[in-house]
UniProtKB/TrEMBL annotation:
Matches recorded under InterPro entries: ARM-like (IPR011989), XPO4/7-like (IPR044189)
Gene3D superfamilies: Leucine-rich Repeat Variant (1.25.10.10)
Any GO MF annotation of the entry: nuclear export signal receptor activity
Name of the featured protein: Uncharacterized protein
Protein family according to the UniProt entry: Belongs to the exportin family.
Amino acid sequence: MTSLSHWGSELKVLEDSTQLLIMMVQNNHRCHLVVECPEFWDLCSKISENVYPYSTLPLSVKQNISTALVHAGSANMNQYKDKYWQQTLQPLHHRYHNLTTHPTFTQHKHKESTILELSSILSMLQGISAASTPSNTTYLFGFLTNFLPDCPKLIDIYHGNESLVVLILELYVEVVHKQICYLKQTQCSLLCDWTMNLLKSYSNHGNTMTSSEDDITLIIELLTNLLSKDFIDFSEPDADETWSIPGAQPMETSAADVVLFGLGIILPNMNSQLLLYPELCSQYFKLITFLCEIYPEKIEKLSDEMLQSFVYSLQIGLKSYGCDNCKLCLEAIESLSTHCYKTKDAPSSLHNVVSSFTKVIDSQQDEQTKLRLSTSFANLTHDVSLLNHDRNSRTTFLRNLESIIYNIRGILCVK
């Protein structure tokens, strides 16, 4: 507590102190000792109400403290729990409500004090989201519904403020990453609706704001986290009395719809120079690999221009950005090829695009070499059920591939 109030200019000291606090409250035994300390309750109150000198702490430190406060409140506090949540979370809601509903908010929305307060609230919300666990997700999601639906409006207002845009995107990334695998279907539908509205607001201001590397990376991460629900789902079925928020009616927006819309934002900005950023590059190829594996039929619905951009990114990913990203591109092509095989009776533009990856055989001028290559590739599917894309078929295919790869290498090398 002393370091937070007396070492405000030493960022490293503050971050180490708050990380230590997080470690203490994540352990049940140590957490009980912490919450019995009067100074801890005093810290909770002053941080939530933005009392000086805690109001001047860096955003990253406030975020860490919020994470620690939620971990402490999620412990078995018995009779203290309701009082604790009321003392820590509700003041943050009141601060946001008082700020955005004040009669002078529209007039003073770009004042430094307003932006600082909003930045502080968004950072603390991100810290709250980071502390999500299976036991507290439902409560925290209900609390966050006081803020998440308003974020598209905040994008409309502050689209010219890069730091606030990043904070809003980071909040959504954290919420989806930490909570989506525990949310019920009704809650997921609401979250998809809000995410779609957020991306639409971001897209609407594309002509007046420049999409930075940070923006694109966060959007890609957000879309990837949305798709993770199809891989990992720990949620319980919706009860008969459907979980709901007063006034909130979930639309028929699926995660795939949100991801496809997000691709429309990403692809026009994606180029070989932007992919030189390692984190962005890795996130992008993970996203398209997941999308091709889970929803290959959605790729067919891309416009011709988007489809060409999509395939071009796969082509350059095969040869320009390292082995790991090349592997992801090959997995994406595999998923698309499998889908095309299953739908070969109803060919689409996707079939033509995927066929562009088979030029290694067609480009051979020597008829004997072409025949030997064709025979070798035909052996790939020996004893493999292409229609049943199961684990056994994949294992057999990989075994066949290993046995013929040396033969193909010899064919291409020997003149």
